[in-house]
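A protein record in our archive is deliberately plain, so that people and models can read it alike. The record that follows is passed on verbatim for readers who wish to inspect the format.
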Amino acid sequence: MKKKLKIIVPLVLLAAALGGWYAYTEYNRKPASMENSPADFVTNTATLLGDFEENEAKANQQYLNRVIEVEGAIRAVSKDQTGLYTVTLGDDGSLSSVRCSVDSIFSEQASGLESGGGVTVRGVCTGFLADPLLGSDVTLVRCAIIKK
C-alpha cells in the first residue's frame, strides 16, 4: 500500500501543478494582435458600407466576427477619457461610416492620424448600427493601423 502511495501522490501533485500552470497561462493570455492576423476580407469603406446597407442579414453572415482590412479616408480621430482612440472612416458627403476602435498598442500610431488622410486598418467586425437619420455605422474592434 505504501508503494502505491509513493507513486500516486507525486503523480497527483504533478498533474495538479500542470493543471494550475495551464489555467494560469490561459487566464493571462492576451488576444492576438490584428497586425499579424490574416484578413478574411480586404475591402474599402464604400464597399463595406454598401454591403451592409443593401442587405444587412447577408452582410452579417459574411463579415460578422471576421477579420476585415478596410482602406478609406479618415473622417475623424477621437480619443476617449481612458486614452483609447477611435478612427472614423468614410466620405464627407455620406452620413454612414466605419468606426474603428483602435487596440491600445497602436495608440501612438492613431494619435498621428489626421482627418482627410487615408489609412488602412484591420480589425474584427462586430456589427452594423443602422440609423436613417444620423447615418449608419459598421463597427470594427481591436483595430491595428496597417498603412498610413
